[in-house]
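Lab notebook: predicted structure, single chain.

Context: the supervisor wants predicted structures on file for every construct in the current expression panel, including those that have not yet been purified. This is the next one on the list. No modifications to the sequence; it matches the entry in the shared construct table.
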Amino acid sequence: MISVIVPIYNIQEYIYDTLDSLIKQTYSDIEVLMIDDGSSDNSSEICKIFSKNDKRFIYYHKDNGGLSSARNLGLEKARGDFIFFLDGDDTIHPHLLEIMINKIGDSDIAYCNVEVVTNTLKTYLMNDDLRNNVATSIVTNIQMINRMYQANPLPYIVIWNKLYRYNIFNNISFPLNKLHEDEFVNYLIYDRAIEIKFIDFAGYYYLVRDNSITQSKMNIRRFDSLEALVLRQHYFEEKGYNELCKKNIDLIIYNFKERCKFAINFSRNERLEVKKKRKLIMGIVFESKRSTIKQKIKCILVVNYFKIFKGF
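Prediction complete. Output recorded below exactly as produced.
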């Protein structure tokens, strides 16, 4: 059985389409864990309609604690051998779960391509050729982590668009009160996988909306991604992943630069927090045995630029 974990918070305009895309799945051995993270709109009423009409849909209500706490509760309640995360404003192709469960084989993770959409209305191509003839390829754990650093990293840095064996989450949970929570755990999960299966099919539809968390304006919490990268750096250093260490240092410097670039009208306390981040990345870059002279110079230039011109 596949346990589909759907975190929900004040998305009454979208949650029906999300859950309806699960009703339409051609693979039926699923449970849908609808985790309501304290919604104050009509999201809960919509969820209750689905749970009343289909016993596979199970509704849980909790006090608001954020996306990570909702996902963690889903993992705690899951009874399936496989886990699939679906954000409450996204949708999936009707064949997706069937294709994934049929193609995963002995792999620990299967993942598909992502299509970015601006509305939830989607015309689906459905036929037996699509189900049976989707191309697949094997990816190693290190290859998967490396793909997080390519030009279009979206399918690799997110936790959704993937089918996981449940036991790969043993002793792994999502960090509470963080943005970019996926980036705190994805590399840990990938590194555990003996084999990963790529399914060449864009079956996950990622909805971009103006008021979503990821599209919200820059604030100090957006620097959480920098914290995730620092933890990743420590992990790579311990594992001896030298090339990944170098790539990650480049991303740490770039991440700090981009966050500072759009940090406008920060309060005094927020500026103090940015200064702490600045000291953190300086320490990482200059203490790492894997960082290059070029990276150290780049770090100095970036840090000093924002120190002089933005007071960071």
